[in-house]
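4.2 Preliminary Data

To establish feasibility before requesting continued support, the project team ran the inverse folding procedure on a target of 360 residues. The structure was first converted into the token representation described in Section 3, and no sequence information of any kind was made available to the design step. The complete token record follows.
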């Protein structure tokens, strides 16, 4: 729901449908949302199109009555147009009307605060929490950086482009970046908060920038550290990093040359290659064509590359921002009585939907 927040906040009223449970194979994960606005307009999605029309009708009903609704959609082969999931799974959808608490939570999330909201339907209590988006730090103000910033923002990262050269590091050259910083890369990284969801991509192609910032990055528990360059550049870079005191265990974390082997050469194609590796690392993917695999397309949460540590890390996170009596805190030690409904589909790191034990 959080990715819909800017539009939802611009509407004077809306109904929003959220996927609260997934069983088997389903097109969208737990936390996916679709909203209907005052004129019947639609944003977002809860499936691959299989049940959108039915959910739209349900949302229009909720918009009219202000009464929340709960529905389950499963596989149906009765007719070609039956309401169901053709992929064979099933999902539960909760539809609710906008209210001051929900609007306050959405605004707080847009402002970058961790937020958890609680709502009830059919005697059950659901909790949805949003952590701040993961960060993507791009070092090197080159054309490739503009493309990486654009696709990184599309993937939901908070993107920063940093370069020591003010003539190149300008907001006009990187309109997709959330922030553009003029500073030496290693100095900026040393003074910047990161965590194990942060990704660093170094594109500078200049040892005087590359080596210090990579040495700093590899000393931190980041989710991803990648650097652009040829195999010869990579070999020379490894030697310089060893001379700088970076250990062999840390060097194995460096993804260089960064990106998956897609065969492209342009900045846009290179950015797709880098983004593909980011996604694969984040979710534990192989990077191989699906046609060559027989494993499930959608992995369970436990098989994701970085999501399981994030689940464990919740217990150490600060309590989420309170929202008008509806906040529960981030799932974990603060609200252990609300287990997560993980389902069998992917669960994005910034969306958590839990089922409570009652209406308390």
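Position-by-position output of the design step:
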């Amino acid at each position: 729901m959080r990715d819909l927040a800017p539009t939802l906040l611009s509407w004077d009223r809306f109904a929003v449908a959220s996927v609260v449970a997934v069983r088997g194979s389903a097109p969208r994960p737990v936390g996916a949302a679709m909203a209907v606005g005052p004129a019947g307009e639609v944003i977002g999605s809860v499936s691959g199109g299989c049940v959108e029309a039915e959910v739209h009708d349900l949302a229009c009903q909720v918009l009219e009555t202000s009464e929340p609704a709960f529905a389950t959609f499963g596989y149906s082969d009765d007719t070609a147009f039956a309401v169901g999931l053709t992929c064979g799974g099933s999902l539960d959808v909760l539809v609710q009307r906008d209210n001051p608490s929900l609007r306050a939570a959405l605004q707080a999330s847009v402002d970058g605060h961790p937020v958890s909201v609680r709502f009830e339907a059919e005697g059950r209590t659901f909790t949805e929490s949003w952590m701040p988006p993961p960060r993507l730090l791009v070092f090197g103000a080159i054309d490739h950086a503009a493309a990486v910033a654009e696709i990184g923002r599309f993937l939901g990262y908070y993107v920063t482009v940093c370069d020591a050269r003010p003539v190149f590091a300008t907001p006009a050259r990187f309109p997709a970046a959330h922030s553009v910083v003029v500073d030496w890369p290693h100095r900026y990284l040393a003074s910047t908060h990161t965590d194990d969801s942060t990704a660093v991509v170094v594109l500078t192609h200049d040892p005087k920038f590359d080596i210090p910032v990579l040495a700093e990055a590899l000393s931190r528990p980041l989710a991803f550290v990648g650097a652009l360059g040829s195999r010869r550049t990579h070999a020379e870079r490894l030697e310089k990093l060893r001379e700088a005191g970076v250990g062999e265990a840390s060097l194995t974390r460096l993804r260089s040359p960064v990106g998956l082997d897609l065969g492209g050469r342009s900045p846009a194609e290179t950015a797709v290659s880098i983004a593909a590796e980011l996604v694969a690392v984040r979710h534990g993917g192989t990077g191989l064509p699906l046609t060559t695999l027989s494993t499930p397309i959608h992995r369970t949460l436990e098989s994701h590359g970085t999501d399981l540590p994030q689940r464990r890390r919740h217990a150490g996170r600060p309590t989420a921002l309170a929202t008008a009596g509806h906040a529960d805190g981030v799932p974990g030690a603060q609200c252990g009585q609300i287990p997560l409904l993980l389902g069998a589909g992917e669960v994005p790191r910034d969306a958590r939907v839990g089922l409570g034990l009652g209406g308390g």
